[in-house]
Amino acid sequence: MPEKTSASGFAAPSLALALAALLAIGGLLAHRAGAQSPLPTASAEDRALAREIFKELIEINTTDTPAGNVTTATTAMEKRFLDAGFPAEDVRLLGPDPRKQNLVVRLRAAIPTSEKPVLFLCHMDVVQALRSDWSTDPFQSIEKDGYFYGRGTQDMKNSDAALVWTFLKLHREGYKPRRDIILALTADEEGGKFNGAAWLVEHHRDLVDAAYVINPDAGGIELEHGRAIVGDVEATEKVYSDFQITAVNRGGHSSLPRPDNAIYELTTALNKLAAYTFPFEMNEVTRTYFKTMATMETGQTAADMRAVTATPPDEAAAARLSTQAAFNSNFRTTCVATRLAAGHANNALPQTAQAIVNCRIFPGHSPEEIRHQLISIFGDDKLTVKFVSDAGIVTDTAPERKAMVPPAPIAEVFEPLTRLTQAIWPGLPVTPEMENGASDSIYFAQAGIPCYGFSAIALERDDVRAHGRDERLPVDSYWKSLDFFYAFTRALGGE
Fold first, then answer.
1. CB 430 within 8 A of CB 118
2. Are 21 and 125 in contact (CB under 8 A)?
3. Cα–Cα distance for residue pair 109/334, rounded to 1 Å
4. pTM for this entry
5. Domains and CATH numbers, the chain
6. Minimal CA–CA distance to 380: which of 245, 195, 221?
7. N- or C-end of the chain: fewer Cβ atoms within 10 A?
8. Angle at CA of residue 378, ends 377 and 384, nearest 5°
9. pLDDT, tens digit, for every residue of 150-172?
10. DSSP string, 140-209
11. Based on the number of CB atoms within 10 Å of its own CB, is 247 exposed (0-12), middle (13-18) or buried (19 or more)?
């Protein structure tokens, strides 16, 4: 779920207003509600349809590869909506590339209104998965041992399917909201030249213009050994950036090895990066998150969470928490080498060695600032450090753009979100979070449309497999997301 690195800026409120908004979010969400009535659960027939849609999407390869095709998936969903009786003018398939068509579906209000719509934003593309890496076929939907397996089960064909099912069910029931509700199924969030969210905002703003965006590509329920700990709502996110690190050397015959060959120079630099820890940081989102988490944890972990939110923060406590990858990512910028290429022959010293370093940049810092920091960490003027755009274009400098400013909380979003979440997971605290991945929310934020990330998907903290091997989703988690999205969509549309 990478966030794209557009260089364009956007109007930001003052820091004081932004912090006030964050504190309001924390006060509104980070609490325990009283007893909630349980939500009605989807019928066996409804679950069968939702499972069928989920399976169909998983088994369509939507990677940004020659074998992948987003249009195959969006066309399949277009057919479902048209077959269900949605008017053709409310089911729009469009995009700048034949293989990257986006689908925009509109559930019309009962009476035309000047009230802006609600938009659910879901990407249809997935990260590449190799059959040789998996114990199952990544593009075959398999149910076993209480899990659905397949590429996209976590990121994010689960929510794609749940919302397609929700829109179909609401239409079948004759539901008429007080305002239009829109579902956008888009291409190239995970990478590629034709990002659907950006393209729709730029070229078809009328189709996706909304009062606010709900993006299920972020947020959700954290589980610890099956117990729900906290519900996360994305309030801000890191900035995604790729950098190309290149070492060039004169090479030579492999029978005369020298320690200054290109691979040696590159790996020396990457080892320095691996040993480097970016400085500890917090903002109002992460501080609110850890204050909430401290009430749910016990022992040393709870004490450390309280200590890192103190003034000044306890860096020893931060170091202990940082041994857990998810917490570490909440405290700082992270950069890691994700791809390597070197050499031109088995019997020759490498003349060129290259790596891609992927960074998730803490709010307040720009990609260009981090590019300079990488240069400083490597300390080798023979290396080049260049920026790689989402379209694969390599440039000498990186954008100066920084993370999106959190939007002010909207009660009509957070009241039902909190109430319905706690109806499924009684007493669960709901809190703002900083997304350590990233999402297409940035394009709508840049256009001045507030975005809130919440998936209603419950995952174990140590079983996040998005982008990884044997990606899987608990079956029960999918069923609960159906119940949530159905009730939440009705609540936003006006019961």
1. no
2. no
3. 44
4. 0.84
5. 15-237+405-493 (3.40.630.10), 239-278+333-395 (3.30.70.360)
6. 245
7. C
8. 125
9. 999 999 999 999 999 999 999 99
10. S-EEETTEEESTTTTTTHHHHHHHHHHHHHHHHTT---SS-EEEEEES-SSSSS--HHHHHHHH-HHHH-
11. buried
